[in-house]
Task: structure prediction
Amino acid sequence: MEYELRNGYDPQWLDALMHLYEAANLLGKRDPQRLHTAFTNSFRVFTCWDGETLCGAGRMLSDGAIQSVIFDIAVLPEYQRQGIGRKIMEALEAEALDTRILLTSSFSAVEFYRKLGYRKHKTGMTKYPSWNADSPYLEEGS
Result:
C-alpha cells in the first residue's frame, strides 16, 4: 500500500494526533495544548497518511549542526509493521545529516531502533517532572 509522507505540522490535525498518541499508548500527560505546542516548536515534523487517516507521526528537535533529538515516533497499531515508522525515521534523519541523533525508546521499540542502527548510550541521563517521577524508564537511585 502507498502512504503519503507529509513534512510539517498543521494545527487542524491536532485531534488526529491526539487519537494517534492515545492509540499508540504514548500520550502520557499530554493534553491537546501541550501536544500542539510540542509539534509547533519542533525543528521538523513528519506525518504519514492513508488517505485522510493519520497513521503515523514523529518529530525532531535540532540545532541543525551538532545535536538532534527524535521524539514521539508513533504508528497506529493497525498500521504497524508496514514500514511507516522506518519511513518517518529516515525522513527525520535526512533533515539532520552529520548531527548526533539521540532518542528515547519505549520498551517495545528497542529492537526497531537497533535495526535502524541506533545503539544504547552508556551515559544517557534524564530528569522527569514530578508527575512522572515513578516512570518505569527511570533507574532507581540518583
The chain has a mean pLDDT of 91.
